Amino acid sequence: TPPLPGTQSSPQDSIADPGKSAFHRSQTLGYRNGFAYSRLPTVGIGRERLYVNQLSQAELDELSNKRPTLTYGQAKQAPPSDFIPAHVAFDKKVLKFDAYFQEDVPISTEEHFRVRHVGIYYYLEDDSMSVMEPIVENSGIPQGKLIKRQRIPKNDRGDHYHWKDLNRGMNITIYGKTFRIVDCDPFTQVFLESQGIELNPPEKMIFDSYTELRKMPIRMYVTPSDFDQFKQFLTFDKKVLRFYAIWDDTENMFGENRSFIIHYYLADDTVEVREIHERNDGRDPFPVMIRRQRLPKAFVDKMKTFPRCVLEVSDHEVLEWYTARDFAVGKPVTLLGRNFFIYDCDEFTRQFYHEKFGITDFQSVDVRKPPPEEVPQFIPPYNGFGFLDDSMQNCFSLLPKPPRKNYLKMLENDHKVLRYQVTLESPNPEERKRRFILSYFLSTDMISIYEPPVRNSGIIGGKYLGKTKVPKPGSTTENAVYYEPADLTIGAMVEVFGHRFIITDADEYVLNYMESNAESVPAATLQSLRDHFAPRRAAVQAAERPQLLAPNVNSGQELEELVKQVQEQLKHHNYLSNSSMREAFLHHDKDASGYLDKAEFFALCNRFNLPVDNALVNKLINLCSHGENKISYQDFIRAFSC
């Protein structure tokens, strides 16, 4: 039945909380220092607090060890404690006694005896003793460990000192030297009293008169009124004034401006001059120009006859020496016949002059020479020899460096060439009949022109222009502008070093390249190429369609008439039959069937520049076609055999 109010067995009981979810019993097993032990539960089921009179752990241990004699008989005696050796029980336990001893000083007139304070240490673990004297600064006596750790003999019978023999207010003789024990530390006092030893009252430590005299403060002597060089040395030691100066020696032959650092040592009024070396200045690496010494400012009248080559200058020959007052920023100073101009100093020097002389004007002087005027560089006109970029490098340096190349562009456009057919613009009609091949190399932006040899034309064909960059008309040497693929359109004029060429035709690869890079090519250039190749592509597409509009395409009479028209145009252009064309078609006809695929056929036709109208060639290809993918190349070659 559910618990109802008034039915609980104790006032602590209450109605069960419906929100409780934990009804397990609490754990009675615990761990302490890695060992398991049992414990009484403190909470009940549902983590409710147990209101019982629990005993402490000490009371539980006492109850567990009790042995009631009435019930179980006589209680068992507890086992004796384990034996602990002295070196374990008294490990690192030392008794310390404060003592002193007195020794005579026979060779001193200031002291007759000396009292030396020591500490006597007794080690309980092995009954050994040692005597240590604290080190006193500037005592002049070897101090520290007087007697090393050992068992000290007590008498001639072989007995040794024991801690029972030590007490305050007693004398102890160790190796013929008597020590007076005056006190001990708190641990020693507690230990001896715990062992039943009654300690004597402590005594005061004795000090000798000479030691007390040394502890008195040092007498302060009054410095005499005259100048004290020793005081100057102690006051200004390691304090140096630093000035930055230049020596202008340009008046003499091969003279120049040289930078120096002047050091003035306040400790002894000496001066040192150091040279500032620059990289690759061509001078020997000797930093000191004038060694540290006192420099004279004014000499006596008889100084002219003084033998300075063998004797040093002293105070008798000098009226005045250089001092700190003689150096100032912005003023010249003459040191050993050399005129130095001081233009700056460091921060310590500024602070010293401000505190010592009240000088605050330390405006540094700019001694740097103004840079020479830049001579405008004029680039001479291009003389036509070599490339323009290579020739221009000779104007920039005596050792010209090759112009930097765009290696990424060269790698991306390697072996990519745009080929165009051009004609020469000339008033001579014979010159206008000449045909040239203009090649534009995309990797280097260079142009080469080649003229195919024509038999019996009277003109030697071959290389017309080697690979070079061709500047546009109006281009200058300062701002050279070269021809780009965007400038090569059908019908455009290309001026090559005074010769004008008209572009009449191009490879189909040019159109494919322009279409693949349409974002970087002007629309006019791309449209001119598309308009030029539109009839040719239409003829090719018509040849690939089924021949429904021309049912009599294989008519022999029509083919013969077309062959005659082609040969007449070849005779007009003085074209000779090329045996390499037949060999190329026969080479690709592996099975000797006389037919080739359209893809291979058009690829071979593009290799040979045929001087025939494109419409006539496309019509001839249509007459030689058999089926959708086969073309008879025998009839096609017969048309070009003159």
UniProtKB/TrEMBL annotation:
<protein>
    <submittedName>
        <fullName>EF-hand domain containing 1</fullName>
    </submittedName>
</protein>
<dbReference type="GO" id="GO:0021795">
    <property type="term" value="P:cerebral cortex cell migration"/>
</dbReference>
<dbReference type="GO" id="GO:0000922">
    <property type="term" value="C:spindle pole"/>
</dbReference>
<dbReference type="InterPro" id="IPR018247">
    <property type="entry name" value="EF_Hand_1_Ca_BS"/>
</dbReference>
<dbReference type="InterPro" id="IPR040193">
    <property type="entry name" value="EFHC1/EFHC2/EFHB"/>
</dbReference>
<dbReference type="GO" id="GO:0051302">
    <property type="term" value="P:regulation of cell division"/>
</dbReference>
<dbReference type="GO" id="GO:0007052">
    <property type="term" value="P:mitotic spindle organization"/>
</dbReference>
<dbReference type="GO" id="GO:0043014">
    <property type="term" value="F:alpha-tubulin binding"/>
</dbReference>
<keyword id="KW-0106">Calcium</keyword>
<dbReference type="InterPro" id="IPR006602">
    <property type="entry name" value="DM10_dom"/>
</dbReference>
<dbReference type="GO" id="GO:0005879">
    <property type="term" value="C:axonemal microtubule"/>
</dbReference>
<keyword id="KW-0963">Cytoplasm</keyword>
<feature type="domain" description="DM10">
    <location>
        <begin position="414"/>
        <end position="518"/>
    </location>
</feature>
<dbReference type="GO" id="GO:0005509">
    <property type="term" value="F:calcium ion binding"/>
</dbReference>
<keyword id="KW-0479">Metal-binding</keyword>
<dbReference type="InterPro" id="IPR002048">
    <property type="entry name" value="EF_hand_dom"/>
</dbReference>
<keyword id="KW-0677">Repeat</keyword>
<keyword id="KW-0282">Flagellum</keyword>
<dbReference type="GO" id="GO:0060285">
    <property type="term" value="P:cilium-dependent cell motility"/>
</dbReference>
<feature type="compositionally biased region" description="Polar residues">
    <location>
        <begin position="1"/>
        <end position="13"/>
    </location>
</feature>
<keyword id="KW-0966">Cell projection</keyword>
<dbReference type="GO" id="GO:0005813">
    <property type="term" value="C:centrosome"/>
</dbReference>
<dbReference type="InterPro" id="IPR011992">
    <property type="entry name" value="EF-hand-dom_pair"/>
</dbReference>
<feature type="region of interest" description="Disordered">
    <location>
        <begin position="1"/>
        <end position="20"/>
    </location>
</feature>
<feature type="domain" description="DM10">
    <location>
        <begin position="237"/>
        <end position="357"/>
    </location>
</feature>
<dbReference type="Pfam" id="PF06565">
    <property type="entry name" value="DM10_dom"/>
</dbReference>
<feature type="domain" description="DM10">
    <location>
        <begin position="91"/>
        <end position="196"/>
    </location>
</feature>
<dbReference type="GO" id="GO:0072686">
    <property type="term" value="C:mitotic spindle"/>
</dbReference>
<keyword id="KW-0206">Cytoskeleton</keyword>
<dbReference type="GO" id="GO:0000281">
    <property type="term" value="P:mitotic cytokinesis"/>
</dbReference>
<keyword id="KW-0969">Cilium</keyword>
<feature type="domain" description="EF-hand">
    <location>
        <begin position="576"/>
        <end position="611"/>
    </location>
</feature>
